[in-house]
Design goal:
The chain has about 900 residues and is mainly beta. It has three domains: about 80 residues, Phage tail protein beta-alpha-beta fold (3-Layer(bab) Sandwich); about 100 residues, Sandwich (Immunoglobulin-like); about 675 residues, Beta Barrel (Maltoporin, Chain A). Helices cover about 10% and strands about 55% of the residues. The radius of gyration is 33 Å and the shape is elongated. The N and C termini lie far apart (about 90 Å).
């Protein structure tokens, strides 16, 4: 019975409501005749209501400013007559059974276009476009300088601002969609000007660290004191809270407890697999070519997939479309030359830059100092170069094409020697390293404005990274009869090549809603391998290593297909509240292994009126490409491999919560995070290789990979002071990062090799005059955990045909190096001549010559058991740089 009543009630609702609506619509379709001459709209509607007996309701201000109307209709619908009466203003009908209510229809139009440097025509990334008087209506120009903002028809005042440029105030009468070309003037090229304060809530405000992301200011990149005066983007990123690097930069970036390979590093939207020169002392990003860079430590948008720790998005400059310029930079370690200018003035431009090192004399000098990584008697040789080329052509106001190209290469060679006594006999060990590596990157991009609020970018991408390291070890005993105790060679090879296509769409639906969506497909080509040859075997020579490279290493060439689609939406659902939600769906296949991974992201933000901001975010990330390292050695083991049936994708989850406050003079931010690595990978070392003939072949790298878990948690605090002459920042991180693998450290938890409990970074810049400034950086952090060799013993096979020395290691990362601290100082001077701009930087890196430990080696062959020998990478170094721009 109850069920019958329930169905009857539902039936009544579904029948009555459509019937009610139908009756209402019939009232609007009712045919009537009506006439009214020289009546105001209000008078006409009152008469129409009386004659038809239908209530017509409206507000008094609906027809403000409308003139009289003349209406004469014969047997026309009520709706058509009302629209003729109210033709002076757009209206919306709200119909009920016995009444028609009229309200004003809000008309919206789009303003869109590009923000550019007024002098060069180069598009500005991250410029702020906001409606003056409103803290919530605004937008930021995208990676190509494009913006779109949907506003009500009528009068508006729009403010446009960008760091380092004079702000613009534009009055607008909006009666239709408008396309704007907004050029901003560079402050450096102007006489003394008054610059408007950043618009409220602007991502470009002085407190540039927001919600787990940071914009890395380009002007600070050139001013910071860095080794030899070589400005470096990765070193600048390492000054952010929650970001750590190896000792003196060696080892890459480690963000919130993640490995270096877990960072997605993009150069013009193309993945860079090895971003470092000189083993990480410098990056591949030539400062003369960098336009903008942004670092996400968490909460990165769904369009960034494939990594589980961070995203560093670097964009290069377009080149000047109007004038020709040249720039030269001379430093202690490297020189770069850059040229740019129009191909077709106002439509097309080029940018070309080359950089090369003269590092060898310094290596030779450093090798003469004791207890450095490069010891006396070594034969070090190192060089690198890189080259950038960028072309762009503007076909129309809606279409522009870009071509980007990068190529860089490194080569390092050295021989380490050490001698000791055993039973009154001299033992000499000789370790040779010959490594070369490099990147080749290319991108062809097409920007297209589909309509005023709909932007598309399509990119064809190519990326290749090759790393080869050949190592030889020979131990010889000198006595009445010299004896070769050990003689073997190893080769590591990592090769990855990508070809991909990607399309991204941005739809600016309204002033409070923006959508990003798109997809990509990538074909990966891998050639990983490791090889060890015992040269003491009968008939074995060093030439055997070369002959086996092709046969063994290139025998394993897995290919992988990877595709992804994503959607990301940014909603401002009430003033001050904003929600960003997105999802990335990834498909990966190599051989018989197929993986489908969903990566959701969500971020809720609240912006208070008193400049307080709060946020909370959560995301799940996954990656299918891995750079496997060993926890038994201190130097990085370069081996890029794909996910396979044996090696599953790495995944991680992260939650974070934060708050910030800023005004014109001060800003501070605090953020806490927790990251859980559900699956992270490590490479098992060659402590117990299986001999097969005179070759220990380990090309089956999958059998040497182990999967484990990890955790990272911490609190990041930053304080910034901004002023006309004095600027400074303090960044402190309290964190803990651990790993656990079933096959390492007896399954026990151990510290991550870049775990630093305390990390403090202080930056100060004092301007004395417009042309002169003084910069200081002081960093201090807990020492890195390391694994030390506890015992060295000699291994000999049963038939005596294989003999060698083996190190037995202590617990994984069971020891910590001493605390790291360093002071860097520089003075910068800018001046102008008739035709050129000049910049000179003088300073000192590691000013008080702190011998920061890079590695500790336990020498078990001395009379002192467990004697540790500390190696240092960089002592006190001069900073000098001279730049000239024509």
């Amino acid at each position: 019975m109850g069920r019958t009543i329930h169905i009857a009630v539902l039936s009544f609702i579904w029948v009555i409501f459509p019937l009610n609506t139908l009756l209402s619509q019939n009232a609007l379709r009712r045919k009537v005749s009506f006439a009214c001459y020289d009546c105001t709209p209000s008078e006409a509607l009152v008469r129409l209501s009386r004659e038809t007996s239908i209530n017509i309701n409206y507000g008094e201000q609906l027809f403000a400013g409308c003139s009289t109307v003349r209406v004469k209709c014969t047997q026309q619908s009520l709706e058509a007559i009302i629209r003729q009466i109210t033709s002076c203003t757009p209206i919306i009908f709200h119909v009920q059974a016995d009444a028609v209510t009229l309200t004003k229809k809000t008309i919206y139009h789009n303003i869109s276009g590009f923000i550019t440097d007024k002098a060069s025509g180069e598009r500005l990334i991250g410029a702020s476009i906001r409606v003056m008087g409103s803290k919530s209506i605004g937008v930021i120009s995208n990676e190509f300088g494009f913006f779109s903002l949907r506003l009500e028809a009528g009068e508006h005042v729009v403010g446009v601002s960008y760091i380092g440029y004079k702000s613009e105030i534009l009055p607008l009468h909006l009666s239709a969609d408008k396309t704007l070309k907004i050029g901003l003037k560079n402050i450096d090229k102007l006489p003394e000007v008054v610059v408007l304060a950043p618009l409220a809530g602007d991502r470009g405000d002085p407190n540039h660290q927001q919600m787990s992301s940071s914009t890395l200011p380009r002007d600070r990149l050139h001013a910071l004191p860095m080794p030899g005066g070589e400005s470096d983007l990765l070193r600048q990123a390492a000054l952010e809270p929650g970001v750590q690097s190896g000792v003196d930069g060696l080892g890459g970036l480690h963000v919130r407890g993640g490995n270096a390979d877990q960072n997605l590093i993009l150069l013009d939207d193309v993945p860079v697999y090895n971003p470092g020169h000189a083993l990480g002392l410098f990056s591949v990003f030539n400062p003369a070519t960098v336009s903008s860079s942004r670092l996400w430590k968490g909460n990165f948008p769904a369009r960034y997939g494939g990594r589980i720790s961070s995203v560093l998005d670097v964009r290069t400059r377009d080149g000047d479309q109007n004038d020709y310029h040249a720039e030269a930079s001379f430093g202690v370690f490297a020189t770069s030359l850059t040229a740019e200018g129009p191909v077709l003035r106002g439509k097309s431009a080029f940018l070309v830059s080359v950089r090369a090192t003269y590092f060898d004399p310094w290596i030779q000098l450093l090798s003469k100092r004791g207890n450095l990584l490069i010891n006396r008697g070594d034969q070090p040789n190192y060089r690198f170069y890189d080259a950038n080329l960028k072309l762009n052509y503007t076909f129309s106001d809606r279409d522009r094409v870009y071509l980007s190209y990068y190529n860089g290469s490194d080569n390092f060679y050295n021989v380490f020697r050490q001698s000791y006594y055993i039973n009154q006999r001299v033992i000499e060990e000789r370790i040779g390293i010959d490594s070369d590596w490099g990147n080749t990157i290319a991108a062809l991009r097409w920007n297209h404005v589909i309509r005023g609020n709909f932007f598309a970018n399509t990119t064809l991408r190519y990326s290749r990274f090759l790393y080869q390291s050949r190592q030889t070890f020979r131990a010889e005993e000198f006595g009445p009869k010299p004896v070769i105790r050990s003689d073997f060679a190893q080769l590591y090879q990592s090769y990855i090549r990508d070809g991909s296509a990607k399309t991204d769409f941005t739809w600016y639906q309204s002033a409070r809603a923006t959508w990003h969506f798109g997809g990509a497909y990538t074909l990966h080509d891998f050639r990983p391998g490791t090889l060890s040859v015992n040269l003491r075997q009968t008939g074995a020579t060093s030439a055997d290593l070369d002959s086996l490279i092709t046969a063994v290493l290139n025998d394993d060439q897995p290919f992988a297909d990877e595709g992804e689609i994503y959607a990301d939406a940014d909603f401002q659902f009430t003033p001050g509240w904003q929600l960003n939600a997105g999802i990335n769906a990834n498909f990966f296949q190599t051989g018989t292994a197929k993986y489908r991974l969903l990566q959701p992201r969500i971020l809720l933000r609240h912006h208070f009126k008193n400049n307080w901001k709060q946020w909370i975010g959560a995301q799940r990330m996954a990656q299918n490409l891995h750079q496997i390292g060993s926890y038994s050695i201190s130097l990085p083991f370069e081996l890029w491999v794909p996910s396979t049936a044996k090696v599953l994708p790495e995944t991680a989850r992260q939650v974070n919560v934060g708050t910030s406050w800023s005004n014109k003079a001060w800003g501070w931010q605090a953020e806490a995070y927790y990251k859980k690595f559900d699956r992270t990978l490590a490479f098992l070392s060659f402590s117990n290789p299986i001999a097969t003939g005179f070759t220990e072949e380990s090309g089956a790298w999958e059998d040497r990979v182990t999967a484990g878990t990890g955790q990272a948690k911490g609190v990041e605090i930053s304080i910034e002071k901004f002023g006309k002459n004095l600027n400074g920042s303090l960044a402190y991180t309290l964190s803990k990062a651990t790993r656990q693998f079933p096959e390492l450290n007896s399954g026990r938890v151990f510290p991550f090799r870049f775990d630093r409990r305390h990390d403090l970074k202080i930056q100060i810049q004092q301007k004395f005059r417009k042309q002169f400034d003084f910069n200081v950086i002081w960093v201090c952090s807990s020492g890195n955990p390391i694994t030390l060799a506890a015992v060295k013993y000699r291994h000999q096979s049963v038939n005596d045909n294989i003999e060698r020395e083996v190190n037995a290691y202590s617990s994984v990362n069971g020891y910590r190096l001493p605390n790291y601290h360093r002071l860097d100082i520089s003075a910068n001077y800018h001046f102008y001549s008739k035709k050129a701009q000049h910049f000179v930087q003088l300073g000192v890196y590691n000013a008080y010559n702190r011998a920061n430990p890079f590695h500790v080696f336990v020498n078990s062959n001395t009379d002192t058991p467990g004697q540790g020998i500390q190696y240092t990478l960089l002592p006190i170094l001069p900073i000098f740089k001279y730049e000239v721009k024509f």
